[in-house]
Amino acid sequence: MGQTVSVPLWLFAAMLLLALWAALVLLLAPGVRWYFRRRVNRMIGEINSRLSIDLPSFKVTRRQVLIDRLFHDSKVQAAADACCRERQLDRSEVLRLVDRYAREIVPSFNVYVYFRVGYATGRAIARLLYRVRVGFADDPGFAAIEARSTIVFAMNHRSNMDYILVAFLAAEHTALSYAVGEWARVWPLQQLIRAMGAYFVRRNSGDALYRTVLQRYVQMATEGGVCQAMFPEGGLSNDGRLRTPKLGLLDYMVKTFDPQGERDLVFIPVGINYDRVLEDRSLLRKLDPLAPKRGTGYAALKTALFLAKNLLLAASGRWHRFGYACVNFGTPLSMRKHLAARGFDFRALPDVERHARVAELGSALMAGISLVVPVLPVSVVASVIEAAQGLALSELELKSRALALMTRLARSGARIYIPRQDQDYAISVGLRMLTLRRLVLENEGLFVAAAGEQPLLAYYANAIAHLLDAAPAADRAQPGAAANIPP
Q1: Residue 328 pairs with which residues in a beta bridge?
Q2: 205 phi/psi in degrees, rounded to 5
Q3: What predicted TM-score, i.e. pTM, was given to this entire model?
Q4: DSSP state, 275?
Q5: Residue 317 scores a pLDDT above 90
């Protein structure tokens, strides 16, 4: 009994590894899971007591459960059967495809990551780069929203910063779920995006099976009360103007909406504008069909040089934030009231008529967004410089025209953000931003657009061009009354 037993070193190492594995799985892992589950549940309780809209159970359901629900959904299974017949494929092969699509789409929302890591990171980035402001919010309209409603923020898409900016500003009230394009499906970015509750979408996919899986997930999330954020334009604006809405996700959300159900579906128009869009030159390049294609390496190099330049400016004390980033929240649009006023139900409409009705809804949402796009200093000054058509302006003349333009916008009902409630300061801020970027040059007290920079000035002017189109008829008929600014 007391004899020594010798074993080979490799066998001892294997036994040691098995013992360590058993200790980890049977002793440490349950304790770690219990600890983090306790922290998460405590955070959910804290959040539900703080948010004006509770986190729905669908939002915090385990990802694998949602994948199984989506996989076994009757409409998804019917689409799989149709795919088998059309493509002459084995059912097991098609079901593997369904499982892959479901795992690609369904997020893995993590409360701790969203409200601790994501919120802190988003706030730090947004405030580091911009002076972040909420210019307008329809508080009485928000107060009238039923507590169990499904909220959808419908926003114009100016920059990829939109994701961070709106999520950060809304985090005091709810957790947003975004639809994110395939550009973000890279490690480790996609893991972080999934943990933040976003789901991935293949743009312009012609695969009917994939579209059915995506459609059913969006409908399940909407019916489950998940607060979502969408860009009706479908992508970034390349020229700065608002775009015609794309209706795919909107159609998915409303086609199964039950006006008599327990949840209302409420769309909140959100207008976003920046004094500087980080991707402005890249977006303008897309408008030039003759511009040479640039790969990922070039983009990475330009990004690194941009960061290095700004770090050097910060180290020398000459760095400035990129102006103001402003968000306005417009009047909510209740689907119950919308359908009751028009006397129809999306579920009862044939496809052609439903698509027409969804197009009307999309136009109404874009109209609501257009009304609350913030007017910022750079957009005002850029509009004045562009309207001058190469004419050099003194500072006094430029400010006079900018003030007349702001007056004209105010008459049209535009939401103008005026820093410090000082119009002269606001115009000076916009002019400083443009001169620092050398888009506007000063020579002997006269300001003029820099050669070759007219497209970029037009890009920032276009952000508020639709508001100028809505100017009162008197201003349009007598442009000279507004300091000679063309209509």
Answers
A1: 136, 271
A2: -75, 135
A3: 0.85
A4: S
A5: no
